[in-house]
Amino acid sequence: MSLTLEIAHSIQSIDPSSWDALTEGMPLLSHAFLSALETSNSVGPGTGWQPCPLLVHDDGRLVGAMPLYVKSHSYGEYVFDWSWAEAYQRNGLNYYPKLIAAIPFSPVTSARVLVAYVANAASIQTLMLQALLEVMHKHQLSSVHILFPDQDSAALLKQAGWMQRHGVQFRWENEGFGSFDVFLGHLQQEKRKKIRQERKKVNAAGVICRRIKGPDIKEEEWDFFYQCYRNTYLEHRSTPYLSAAFFKSIAMRMPEHILLVMATLNGVPIASALNFYDQDTLYGRYWGCMQYVPNLHFELCYYQAQEFCIEENIRYFEGGAQGEHKLARGFKPKATCSFHQIADPDFAQSIADFLSRESLGVAAYTNELEQRAPFKLSAASNSPVIFTDNTE
């Protein structure tokens, strides 16, 4: 065994097949997705996201990696540490730059400490975590943050003594539903009635929805989608994170993982939603509209995606950050987490105390969400009662 560790300056310097061999097919971790962020200048110089992937080679073979970025701000992370940065500033210290392991602009849980299936996998992962701390101290970074790790990465970080922060998102699960109506049959009467009414109103307005897989998306449809995406940010007086060049790049590099949902009215496109997917999970990511129609957001972003999962036998639909309204549409609360190392010992202790208090609030909030689950349960069996009537 001859392990060598490297901090690269770009994922483009890495062989795509070698990187993808470590990602277990997760589309948002793929070389195509991450390199598209770089080549489109969505990350890189001037963006506050400087790529610096961590790599471990064994006799020239890539056996370990982490998607790393040096950050000069906290935008696009979805794990909010603005109060930490403000505390540093009040004490005359610099919180930026910091180091994060994440998928930019994507609050998606997946592996973060990537490793090949080799006998010394645990040693490789330990080496990478030690390297992160060495980089933090050597380059005088304030901190290291690993955002939205999966269970395996989280267990490793917890064992290594990193500070854990808890969060919650919303995820829909396809429990082998044969149709959308079968899914609705698992919901309480009030909830399934509301969903049917929402869908009927969209249909009555004359809106036609189409689900288009990546290879079939036309250039003009991509152009319209970007108008929608950009308009969403403009309505909030913000600037889009991703450029048009990014979407054109992924359209060419990874079309098999893309689903576009388009809505038209009188033959004119009015809204769209973009999703990524693999065999197990669909990831709802971006949405926008050019003309308001009541309930259209729910139709494009939730119901069309749920129907797609049912048709394609995809088990999970990750709805992204925030949105308690997802509960009424069949989503369930899902625990998320992040892990942190702080260079300054005093701040490390203060943040550890804060995280301890915050975790109690997150636990109480999650419990409240679970109590509001929309599924009808049988008092006798504690199992879902399935309704099949369509009279509501």
TrEMBL record:
SUPFAM superfamilies: Acyl-CoA N-acyltransferases (Nat)
InterPro entries linked: Acyl_CoA_acyltransferase, FemAB-like
One family name in Pfam for this protein: FemAB_like
Gene3D superfamilies, alphabetized: 3.40.630.30
Signal peptide positions (record): none
UniProt protein name: GNAT family N-acetyltransferase
